[in-house]
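Posting this for the archive.
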Amino acid sequence: MDRFERSTIINRPLEEVFPVLANLENDPKWRREFVEARKTSDGPIGIGTRFSLFGEFLGRRGEVVYKVSEYEPNRITAWKTVSGPLPLTFRRSFEGVEGGTQVTIRYEGEMGSFFSLMKPLLISMARRALEGDLPKVKEMMEARAL
């Protein structure tokens, strides 16, 4: 199991940050790897809710389907890959702190034998993407653009 995490503090109240970042339909606005996202199950977001996220890589459009695996309002939300190229779990945890909300994003993946040779590259790419995306979501949330 390979895992890494990063955190940032967003200068907005927890009650405003959580619903935005718990809804994957907002991710294409701040995550560079996705161009579109849709909630594909009915009802409010909670355990079992599914999202389809679409990205483009080398001129090809791909879809990843995630299912909410953990959900505690204003505390934690996590997703597991249902279909897509990599088995992945990612989790966002939220904590109210003085002046805002600390958001921690953790990725965990199982790199099977097919990806074992590419593992260092894939981990490096994911870390760099997250390190670039966190300042963007912080800026957008603080500007109330999300």
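Strands lie at 2-10, 36-39, 50-57, 60-72, 76-83, 88-97, 100-109. Residues 14 and 96 are 6 Å apart (CA to CA).
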